[in-house]
Design a protein that fits this description.
- The chain is mainly α.
- Helices cover 65% and strands 9% of the residues.
- The chain has eight helices and three strands; from the N terminus they run αααααααββαβ.
- Helix 1 packs antiparallel against helix 4 and helix 4 runs antiparallel to helix 5.
- The protein is elongated and about 85 Å long.
Length: 304
Amino acid sequence: MGHNHSHSSHTHTDLKGRNLFISILLNIIITLAQVVGGIISGSLSLLSDALHNFSDVLSLIISYIATLLSKKKATSNKTFGYKRAEIIAAFVNSSTLIIVAVILIFEAIQRFINPIPIKSGIVIWMALLGILVNGFSVLLLRKGAHGNMNMRSAYLHLFTDMMASVAVLIGGLFMKYFSLFWVDPLLTILIAFYLIYMGGTLLKNSTRVLMLFTPNTIEIKEIVNILCKIGAIKNVHHVHIWQLNEQEIHLEAHIDFKEDIKLSEFDQILVEIEEVVYHKFGINHVNIQPEFGKCDNKKIIVQD
């Protein structure tokens, strides 16, 4: 099966890189502004939003580097190139989301115990600035977030921070008009739990790819049953299915044939196998080891 890498895919990667770079600059500006505003106003939720923004800057830089690396070509000692760089970036970024969330919860509990008055006016204006900047960054990355775990991790960082700014704005209004200062740490905790939920899902998905687990959408026994219906095939065993990244799913298997067929006949059957697994399961890289009368372990899953 041929594997095409069109010029349009490289153009899309360049566009992702540009949008990430713009988002990095914007988030550096908003982070500095929120730190100053949080210190002056005494708002924990504003400082927590600034901390989250700082984690956004780091995650966006990681995503940007991963995007650049993913464009590098394969070499003799790096035969897959850097195609997994974006998965590693997603793993790191989702981990930081959870770490930041735990820090926020700890700080919010301390603020519940020792509440202090907050200058709500600064909180409101900084929150509005955060909504505008993060909202624009979210729009920049939204398209690239579909089908790319790295971009999705960066998008989630920015989207959750935009929602955090919305929560901070609401908290600022409550503090300004009702003097309800406990709203500040409460919103911080709600933001933190949301981060844990979103980060946990992404961490789980990126871990599955890094650990070479079979994608959840694929059932190995179903593939084996379908392939065994091809007339010349006697048995399918020693199967491995994994994702290299979100674009490439690999299948490796040993196949017993009923007869000692010619190589040209095997090539025809291989084309049929590739078409079946691609159209039904989205598997686009196939490596088959043909066998005839070989005495080896015939189990579907073999632990070497």
